[in-house]
Design a protein that fits this description.
By secondary structure, the protein is an alpha+beta fold. It folds into 3 domains: about 40 residues; about 30 residues, no CATH class; about 35 residues, no CATH class. It has 4 helices and 3 strands; from the N terminus they run H-H-E-E-E-H-H. Helix 1 packs antiparallel against helix 2.
């Protein structure tokens, strides 16, 4: 997703009604992180695939030749952090003690971010 599209989505989220403020906040936070990460990365080359004797081989170029060329960055893109939904937060509060609550939150966040 390009930075411009992410920025437009973030602006649209920020203008939504506050009725779903928790979900909107999580989505907006994830988009802000993705935009910041995209701004930090620098494209150093593009991977272009060429066909030789019916086999595909990668070729590095400094400029993209087609829309299908893959950008190669100075660092691999990181997956943006995903928070818990409102329902997931409420399900964690059904735990009998604080240790179980903390463990349940940790498990849910690990599942969503791996």
């Amino acid at each position: 997703m390009s930075r411009k599209i992410m920025q437009q989505a973030l602006e649209a989220l920020e203008t939504l009604d506050a009725g779903d403020s928790y979900k909107t906040h999580n989505a907006a936070t994830a988009l802000r992180q993705a935009i910041a990460q995209a701004e930090k990365q620098e494209i150093v080359a593009f991977r272009h695939w060429i066909k030789v004797d019916n086999e595909m081989f990668p070729q590095l170029t400094l400029m993209p030749r087609t829309d299908k060329d893959e950008p190669l960055y100075t660092a691999p893109p990181r997956k943006p952090w995903v928070g818990l939904t409102e329902d997931e937060v409420f399900s964690c509060f059904a735990m009998p003690n604080m240790f179980a609550l903390a463990h349940a939150v940790e498990i849910k966040l690990k599942d969503k971010n791996t």
